[in-house]
């Protein structure tokens, strides 16, 4: 199949799965088609899928990933021992693990084409990630507590694993407990990565954005927690602070002593 043929196959497969989608009109424009596919994948509940679908999906997503390019940890210049700062799309990082800011259901974002990191990661990985997360949560039997971490495969991403953590949601002012929980997110991810023998971990800006944790305070907690972990654990782990927005890049540059 060509990439265009894969796109059509995946769209029609997902439409035919659900009788409610019978009136969906598939657009001609390739960009709109890709957006429709992402939307259909975003709203799909975790359910078995055919091997033909997985084969076409994996080939499609891997080619899309290759088009975006891949950044390896060794390509980054450390700002201090064990720590690097990088601005870009976290789904293109070939670290041992990238961190996903998840919600307590741990199933990914169901809002079509939403701009959160949870949506971006699940969309780039494929339907296998939601299926694996559903298995993990079914075995756990409860929602994921704030400040903990889970690990899954990365499937169609260039990294090896995805670490999922639920950060605190800020409704009014930030309380001391919120700061402790955010620090726990970072430490839990690092400890889980260490237990798996991973040597490079890329963090997104946990709890900022949709969860409303103030960016500068969140960054201070992140840097402080990572520095403390690396000092306590001489395991050769490399940590990448991945930012997407210019404002976060400026904050982290200042905290890490860059000009």
Write a compact overview of the structure shown.
The protein has 259 residues and is α/β, with parallel strands linked by helices. Strand 3 and strand 4 form a beta hairpin.
Structure description:
One of its GO terms (molecular function) is hydrolase activity. Keywords: Hydrolase. By secondary structure, this protein is α/β, with parallel strands linked by helices. It is built from eight helices and six strands; from the N terminus they run αααββααββαβαβα. The chain has a six-stranded mixed beta sheet, with helices on both faces. α6 packs across α7 and α7 crosses α8. The longest helix has 20 residues. It is globular, with a radius of gyration of 19 Å. The mean pLDDT is 96.
Please render the helix and strand layout as text:
Layout: H1 3-17, H2 30-43, H3 51-68, E1 83-87, E2 97-102, H4 117-125, H5 127-140, E3 149-153, E4 161-166, H6 176-195, E5 200-203, H7 215-232, E6 238-243, H8 246-255
Parallel strand pairs: 1-6, 2-4, 2-5, 5-6
Antiparallel strand pairs: 3-4
Helix pairs in contact: 1-2, 1-3, 6-7, 7-8
């Amino acid at each position: 199949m060509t990439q265009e043929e894969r796109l059509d196959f995946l769209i029609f497969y997902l439409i035919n799965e659900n009788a409610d989608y019978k009136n969906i009109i598939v657009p001609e424009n390739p960009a709109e088609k890709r957006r429709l596919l992402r939307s259909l994948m975003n709203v799909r509940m975790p359910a078995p899928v055919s091997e033909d679908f997985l084969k076409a999906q994996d080939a499609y997503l891997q080619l899309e990933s290759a088009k975006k390019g891949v950044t390896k940890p060794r390509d980054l210049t450390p700002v201090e021992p064990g720590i690097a700062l990088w601005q870009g799309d976290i789904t293109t990082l070939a670290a041992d693990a990238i961190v996903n800011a998840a919600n307590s259901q741990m199933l990914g974002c169901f809002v079509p084409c939403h701009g959160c990191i949870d949506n971006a990661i699940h969309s780039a990985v494929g339907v296998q990630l939601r299926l694996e997360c559903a298995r993990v949560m079914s075995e756990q039997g409860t929602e994921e507590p704030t400040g903990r971490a889970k690990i899954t495969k990365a499937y169609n991403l260039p990294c090896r694993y995805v670490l999922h953590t639920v950060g605190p949601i800020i409704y009014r002012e930030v309380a001391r407990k919120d700061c402790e929980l955010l620090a726990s997110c970072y430490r839990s991810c690092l400890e889980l990565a260490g237990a798996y023998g991973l040597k490079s971990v890329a963090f997104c800006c946990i709890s900022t954005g949709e969860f409303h944790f103030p960016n500068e305070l969140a960054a201070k907690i992140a840097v402080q927690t990572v520095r403390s972990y690396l000092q306590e654990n001489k395991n050769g782990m490399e940590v990448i602070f991945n930012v997407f927005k210019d404002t976060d890049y400026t904050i982290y540059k200042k905290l890490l002593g860059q000009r």
